[in-house]
Specification:
By secondary structure, the protein is an alpha+beta fold. It contains nine helices and 22 strands.
Length: 424
């Protein structure tokens, strides 16, 4: 590779997207098709899956084998966890979160979709909108994913009929009226044959829209994190052992929102102490400014008592401090949520104990209804709850900042993550 191409590649835009659908809707085949048709796999990989497909007696090269990497998964024909895939085209880099379709793995979708710019919702053209379609779409909306790409797959099995696609699009739009401001896109595809995935389909001349890859290459990637108020949760205090640097102190972490510049007036929470940014450092490089989600070290103009879990914020644009939280909670624990149960809560770089005080309602995703009075929250349920923490947190609403507006609950006995929450 010639050296002059490196800066261009480094500046390429990155789009993160997630895929979701019911079992056998063709997610793995679609991702395999994207990787193969965009020339993002090696020839020997293709030959390997071609041989595997032949051995299994399959009529086509089974591109799903590209993504179902575990032998046990191949034998059972299922995908059971979030798998991250990377590929690039001349226009953009991509990270795919491939999430399971089974209803019992809703928690995996929450994990995979939490940082996505877009979500691909697969619908089997023969089945139309089903409960899993509604569940995955609701979660994508809850996570405030800006774009929902509804791919009506297996169009080859319904004769590439326009009226089948139109009927499913109409049914989905009716359901999606309750989802909020998410932007919808609809594409008819055959992941197996490649129709309308990377190349336009000659089988569907009636469809005038872009291919899936064209859409993924041109979706606007909003830098929401950079527009937010400046937030810097401190992860580590750097104090060199070398006596020559006895006056040096820096605060390392990952910017959770906004932009910090040298000379900015900031405030340290919870003490409220004011300071000015003297230097911004990354590795051995000094920067004039840094934006989310960069990992940097900040040096201040004065000595301040700061420790892990404190937050450096833009002066005059402080987050809310509170011990009482209202949260949309996706329950991930095998055991049901215990009301008045004690959990460990992790928020940015802070960990502290909390109590779940009450369940306001449980969400019936199928009907998009809130059911009050239902307090038993089991695996994969989503509910609005009240949480009390042992010390004030510095929070924004999830709709304002995904980083300072999200949290996880941990079972102290098992150290397992049992809940993922979005602060209201």
């Amino acid at each position: 590779m010639s050296t002059h191409t490196l800066p261009v590649q480094q500046e390429m835009e990155l789009l993160r997207f997630t895929t979701a659908g019911s079992v056998d809707d063709g997610k793995s085949t679609l991702i395999g098709r994207l990787l193969y048709d965009s020339k993002s796999i090696f020839e020997d990989q293709y030959e390997s899956i071609r041989a595997s497909s032949e051995k299994r007696g399959e009529e086509y090269v089974n591109l799903a084998l590209l993504t179902d990497g575990l032998r046990a998964e191949r034998e059972q024909g299922i995908t059971i966890d979030v798998a991250y895939r990377y590929f690039a085209t001349p226009r953009r880099k991509f990270i795919i979160a491939d999430t399971p379709g089974h209803i019992q793995y809703t928690r995996n979708m929450v994990t995979g979709a939490s940082t996505a710019h877009a979500a691909i919702i697969l619908i089997d053209a023969r089945k139309g909108v089903i409960e899993q379609t509604r569940r995955h779409s609701y979660i994508a909306s809850l996570l405030r994913i800006p774009h929902l790409i509804v791919c009506v797959n297996k169009m080859d099995l319904v004769g590439f009929q326009e009226d089948v696609f139109d009927r499913i699009e109409k049914e989905y739009r009716t359901f999606a009226e309750g989802l909020g401001e998410t932007k919808l896109h609809f594409i008819p595809i055959s992941a197996l044959l490649g129709d309308q995935v990377v190349e336009p389909s000659s089988n569907m001349p009636w469809f005038k829209g872009s291919t899936l890859l064209q859409l993924l290459e041109t979706l606007p990637v909003t830098d929401d994190e950079r527009q937010e108020e400046a937030r810097f949760p401190v992860q580590y205090v750097i104090r060199p052992m070398n006596p020559a640097y006895h006056d040096y102190r820096a605060y390392a972490g990952r910017i959770a929102g906004g932009t910090f510049r040298i000379g900015d007036a900031v405030k340290i929470l919870p003490s409220g102490t004011p300071a000015t940014i003297k230097s911004i450092e990354r590795y051995q490089e000094v920067l004039k400014q840094a934006s989310a989600p960069m990992s940097v070290s900040l040096v201040l103009d004065r000595e301040v008592d700061i420790s892990r879990g404190d937050m450096i914020v833009a002066e005059g644009k402080e987050p809310r401090q509170t011990q009482d939280l209202e949260v949309m909670l996706c329950w991930m624990g095998e055991k049901p949520l215990q009301i008045n149960g004690r959990y460990l809560l992790k928020h940015t770089s802070r960990e502290l104990r909390c109590v779940v005080k009450a369940v306001q309602y449980k969400v019936d995703i199928s009907a998009l209804e809130n059911r009050k009075g239902e307090e038993e929250i089991k695996l994969n349920d989503i509910a609005r709850v009240n949480i009390r923490v042992t010390a004030p947190l510095f929070i924004d609403s999830y709709s304002r900042n995904r980083n300072t507006g999200s949290l996880i609950l941990i079972d102290e006995n098992t150290n397992a993550t049992v809940g993922a929450g979005m602060i209201i």
